[in-house]
Design a protein that fits this description.
Elements (H helix, E strand, L loop, with lengths): L7 H19 L3 H6 L1 E2 H5 L5 H4 L7 H18 L5 H22 L5 E2 L3 H17 L3 H20 L3 H7 L5 H25 L1
Antiparallel strand pairs: 1-2
């Protein structure tokens, strides 16, 4: 039987992310004008866009897809979430995704969306399952990397691009998942130092 992680410490982080992204969507187009990842604006010193662009969306379908992913990840791995730690992971992963785009994907001039960050949270959650001896963790980890490999080889899904009315930033997914691995490595190093 599925037991959802209803405790506030497990739920508050995802709730806050959903509320913030929804409020920013309601504030469009002003929010995009000041907060979207915009390469030229970042180059002129508007560094906050490295974080804030991750919380914006191109249209309602894009928002709903990412909100559904936040909820899905909470149902899968919410028992591992602690509010402050979860929010820190979201923010640090968001900055890491944007830095990856800025330096490694120079043709991408403008970017919004939470999916890159969510790929990092997914990888971290799958590792938590593995650490707790759940076979599903290995399946989820293999599945997310197979999805990313497919995107890198075959390109983005055309149906998703039409749905969100934008090109799918597949490199954001790659950078997010890669940073999920970085978070795991950092946790393992910390664990080694403490033991």
């Amino acid at each position: 039987m599925l037991r959802l992680p209803y405790a506030w410490t497990h739920s508050l982080g995802p709730i806050l992310v959903c509320v913030i992204t929804t409020m920013l969507f309601i504030a469009e187009p002003t929010s995009s004008m000041w907060l979207a990842f915009d390469r030229e604006s970042i180059g002129q010193g508007e560094w906050w866009r490295l974080l804030t662009g991750n919380f914006l969306h191109t249209n309602l379908n894009h928002l709903l897809l990412n909100l559904a992913a936040v909820v899905l990840l909470w149902t899968l791995h919410g028992q591992y979430y602690q509010t402050l730690h979860y929010l820190m992971m979201i923010c640090i992963c968001g900055i890491a995704v944007s830095i990856g785009i800025y330096y490694l994907d120079p043709q991408l001039q403008w970017y919004v969306g939470l999916s890159g960050v969510l790929h990092g949270i997914f990888v971290w959650g799958a590792y938590q399952d593995i650490k707790h001896g759940l076979v599903s963790g290995w399946i989820l980890m293999a599945g997310v990397w197979a999805k990313i490999a497919n995107e890198q080889i075959a390109g983005a899904s055309n149906s998703v691009a039409v749905l969100i009315d934008a090109n799918v930033a597949i490199n954001a997914h790659l950078f997010g998942a890669f940073f999920g691995l970085v978070m795991i490595i950092c946790a393992l190093i910390k664990q080694q130092k403490n033991s």
